[in-house]
Specification:
The protein has two domains: 184 residues, Quinone Oxidoreductase, Chain A, domain 1; 139 residues, Rossmann fold. The protein starts with a strand and ends with a strand. It is globular and about 65 Å long. The chain is an alpha/beta fold. Helix content is 27%, strand content 26%. The chain is built from eleven helices and 18 strands. Helix 4 packs across helix 5. Strands 3, 5, 6, 9, 10, 17 and 18 form a seven-stranded mixed beta sheet that branches. A six-stranded parallel beta sheet has the order 13-12-11-14-15-16, with helices on both faces. Strands 1-2-7-8-4 form a five-stranded mixed barrel. It binds adenosine-5-diphosphoribose and zinc ion. The site of adenosine-5-diphosphoribose (APR) has 28 residues, from helix 1, helix 5 and strand 12. InterPro entries: ADH-like_C, ADH-like_N, ADH_Zn_CS, ER, GroES-like_sf, NAD(P)-bd_dom_sf. GO terms for molecular function: S-(hydroxymethyl)glutathione dehydrogenase [NAD(P)+] activity; zinc ion binding.
Length: 368
């Protein structure tokens, strides 16, 4: 029996989302209907709204979400009605070489980037036709239908708002440290950009035992948040601040690891200058489509520095989501403190305005 859901829809025009009803069809074979509990408001949604990334429209936005399984389609065995699940914004196909190699984050068989389910369709529609779920999840909606491999069961005692964050920012930020960079205890690190994802990088560095942990942001409010999560030093970026010199002072010549968590070409280009000899720069922030950066190639080569890309924290959702949930439940990841605003779906446009102004750590939509 199909149902309606209130959802935040991007029509491809303007920078505000339309809050309106969409139709949600029953889950097909291998699919799961999820009643959403919470959806975070992430920087990647903003890239889409602001026209930096292009997708089929209309799109139900949101890709950082958690909820409760309401119903399952034929053949589903991983989850059952009543289970708490965190949604993964790519669904591993479980057949390609990357999946077989345990690198599900690099899956080449998924159609999540096209906002399509495995059979090339969606379960969402409105009176004009097909509606697309962003990254095949579309979490800013009361209901979502996702492939079984995108719904990862987690303990029911995990609060929904916290669970939603594990669906993107936490996995992306902590995973960049633990899976991609594999930062060893005692290494020095700098984090450029301390929004929801950057603060998750700080948390990952604390977990890894990095020292010192230097947070860089233009906003003093974000730097205060970074200190509360365990950054040992902060540098306020802005005209007249030489960030590289400040980092060199604090680390005795440059950091072992530097994370860019904004997605701006200008700050990406500064990464090599923040690093010590043989240091590793990690690209976590995602720039607009087609962006190109210039780096001093001789300096990079001579000093043996490395730049690595990091997407979704190199995560395998079925492995990493339960691990991160376990760390939270054991008191090792202060995820509640990351949530600065709990909002209703209707308030989502204000959350994006605050994100553009850099004034909130993380807004989370909580569904009734
Ligand atoms: N120097 C330092 N900090 C800056 C600068 C700058 N020039 N410009 C912006 N910032 C800071 C902002 O103040 C903010 O704290 O970068 C942070 C960006 O955070 P959010 O907008 O909250 O974005 P977030 O959700 O954390 O995502 C960051 O990671 O996964 C990607 O697509 C995502 O590209 C996005 C990035
Ligand atoms: Zn995200």
């Amino acid at each position: 029996m199909a149902r309606t859901a209130m959802a935040a829809v991007h029509d491809g025009r303007g920078t505000t989302l339309d809050i309106r009803e969409v139709w949600v069809a029953d889950p097909g074979p291998g699919e799961v209907l999820v009643r959403m509990g919470a959806s975070g408001v992430c920087g990647s949604d903003r890239h889409v709204i602001d026209g930096e990334w292009h997708l089929p429209t209309p799109t139900v936005l949101g890709h950082e979400g958690a909820g409760t399984v309401e119903a399952v389609g034929p053949g589903v065995t991983d989850v059952a009605p009543g289970d708490s699940v965190i949604l993964s914004w790519y669904y591993p196909c479980r057949r390609c070489r990357a999946c077989a190699a345990g690198k599900a984050w690099a899956c080449t068989g998924t159609r999540s980037g096209e906002c399509l389910l495995p059979d090339g369709t969606t379960r969402l529609s409105d009176e004009r036709g097909v509606v697309y779920p962003y990254l095949a999840v579309g979490t800013m909606s009361e209901y979502a239908v996702v492939p079984e491999s995108a719904a990862v069961r987690v303990p029911s005692e995990l609060p929904m708002d916290v669970a939603s964050l594990i669906g993107c920012s936490i996995t992306t930020g902590v995973g960049a440290v633990t899976n991609n960079a594999r930062v060893p205890a005692g290494a020095s690190a700098v984090v450029v950009g301390c929004g929801g994802v950057g603060l998750a990088v700080v948390m990952g560095l604390v977990l890894a035992g990095a020292h010192p942990i230097i947070a860089v942001d233009t906003s003093e409010e974000k730097l205060a948040a970074a200190r509360s999560f365990g950054a040992t030093h902060t540098v306020q970026a802005g005209p007249g601040t030489d960030v590289a010199a400040a980092v060199a002072d604090l680390t005795g010549g440059g950091a072992d690891y530097a994370f860019e968590v904004i997605g701006r070409v200008e700050t990406i280009e500064t990464l090599p200058s923040l690093l010590a000899t043989a240091g590793v720069g990690v690209l976590v922030g995602l720039p607009p489509e087609g962006a190109r950066a210039g780096i001093d190639v001789l300096e990079l080569a001579e000093a043996g520095k490395t730049l690595i890309g990091s997407n979704y924290g190199g995560a395998v959702p079925g492995l990493d989501f339960p691990r991160l949930a376990g760390l939270y439940l054991a008191g090792r990841l202060p995820l509640d403190s990351l949530i600065s605003h709990r909002i209703r779906l209707e308030e989502v446009n204000e959350a994006f305005a605050a994100m553009r102004a850099g004034t909130r750590t993380r807004s989370v939509i909580v569904f009734d």
